[in-house]
Amino acid sequence: MSRNPYKIAAGAGVLALAFSLLAYFTMVGRDYPVWSPGALFHSSAEADHFDNQVFTIKDSNNTLLSEMSRTVQVGDELLKPDGRRYRVTTVNNFDARAEFTGMDRDFLALRDEYNGLTLPATAGKTVARAWQTRPIAIYHTHSAESYVPTDGTDSQPYHGGIFKVGDVFASALRKSGVKVIHDKTPHEPRDTNAYYRSRRTAVKLLKQNPVALIDVHRDGIPDPNYYIKNIDGSEVTQLRLVVGRQNPKMHSNMEFAKKVMAAADKIYPNIVKEIFIAHGNYNQDLLSTAMLIEVGTHTDSRVEAEKGATMFADALPTILGMTGTIPGNEGPAGGAGPAAQTPGAWKNVAWLLGILILGSGAFLLISAGSWDKARQRLRSFWRQEVSIGSPAKKPGANDRKKPNDKE
Q1: What confidence tens digit (pLDDT) does each residue in 76-87 have?
Q2: For residue 155, is it within any domain?
Q3: Quick one: 246 and 360 in the same domain?
Q4: Residue 240 shares a structural domain with residue 349
Q5: Continuous H helices in 207-324
Q6: pLDDT tens readout for residues 306-343
Q7: Which residue from 57, 173, 190, 379 puts its CA 20 to 30 A from 398's CA?
Q8: Which pTM was predicted?
Q9: What CA–CA distances, in Å, run from 304 to 165, 234, 295, 301?
Q10: Residues 237, 376: one domain?
């Protein structure tokens, strides 16, 4: 029996698999985490944080750049409020080293732009009116997170102190005239699947067509003074903004985070400690204006964290009012608009096209039975397709009828 039917079946199977991958990852619902072809070669799980775990990031001169309980990995980046940007090059246990990659010109331009404008802390009350029909959505992936000095523990499953920080954050936004949805759905336990569970909450919030989607956390380093800052005459905790780098909307999320840090620094200098570009997605593929914030750490007083969240709330509606091009380009329920067409999204399209090309090539090779026959079929197909669109061949001298030729 000829082996050709088996070869054709195998090739058809490879092609069907390629088309299935394309259809699944294009049509699958938003309840599932975003897929990136790069995940085939490395884990795309979020670099989560564990209380009392401390990663330090230092530069080549052994100067401390940052501390965090979030797991640090090679390729992570830091953007400091002065515009300096660093990339993590090595991680040895809990000691990470980062190289200075230059000043972030986009951020510096934003900072200069905002420094030339008048942005009082009450500016949001005026500019936010355009967004009253589109709320800011707040939720908590790690709903048990708490603050030891005021909550008595670092973790309260299903009703953590982080909810109260979210309440104060939401209240401050509402005072500026902003519509807010604060979702207190618990996502226990705090494990590697927490972001899968909170994704369902985020998807539900997207149905309200939010202008921004903010996941509120706190850090877990034991030093209570690391985040404490005297700002505007009050002891408050600083905030860290976290952007997931394995995310097709990473560039638009990062653009949003830069604008928020620049505007916040204008109103309350140093309220935002830094932007950390971390390994993971953090459900930020759902919206170009999605953001994860960490408000202090578990050894800080929740009162200080609430003050920091209030100051941050003063800056957020201001930036949303001034940069409507980002949220305005989002379709209903966070659908992809022009702002979502990031290089990361096009990279995924390129991967999927590559899968289709490889699948088609495998089908051709298996059905032909050899490289030579596959090349012959490809050349034959190409000549046939080209000849279809080619102009008709003019009759040559040998093609003309002779007078004595019969009709």
Answers
A1: 999 999 999 999
A2: yes
A3: no
A4: no
A5: 250-267, 302-322
A6: 999 999 998 887 777 643 333 333 433 333 333 334 44
A7: 379
A8: 0.73
A9: 10, 9, 9, 5
A10: no
